[in-house]
Amino acid sequence: MTTPPMLRQLRHDVWATEQLLERCRTLSDEQLALTVPGTYGTIRATLVHIVAAGERYLSRFMKMPDPLLNDRSEGSATLDEIAAHLSRVKDGVEKLFAGQELDPERVIRDPRRKPTDPPLLITAWVLVTQFAHHGSDHRAHIGTILGAHGLDTPEIDVWAYGAANDAVKELR
Fold it and tell me: Among 76, 126, 149, 162, which is disulfide-ready with 167 (CB 3.0 to 4.6 Å)?
């Protein structure tokens, strides 16, 4: 059976966040609080934001277990809590693409996070594409923070994911 391309893309998204989270487990609390101008915020707050947004994107397509991760709590979640919610995201990604119910042209009414903002009508393909882009963008922020502070960054690009899945091989 052929794996749909967007499922492969979102599997990479989850895998890359898992790899980054494992790298961050080696950091001290002080290092998790590092940031640099131009990024989302601290390393911890950015990890929380990536995973919380993943849960929110999925919740527009399916019922997600409560409670969702709160990224408005100033990034106070532990790495274990972030990992537990990332596991939910991973399961949701698999379920979303396991069946045929994902209609990329379906229009979704989004109530918005701020009750004072008017709702949006969003075509499903936009949410799926944003989901894939969002994580990559913010993982790059964490890579920038790590690099700016002289800390090692993990290899989490698509080439590394392909190699980890035996889909990229060096010929000798």
Answer: 162
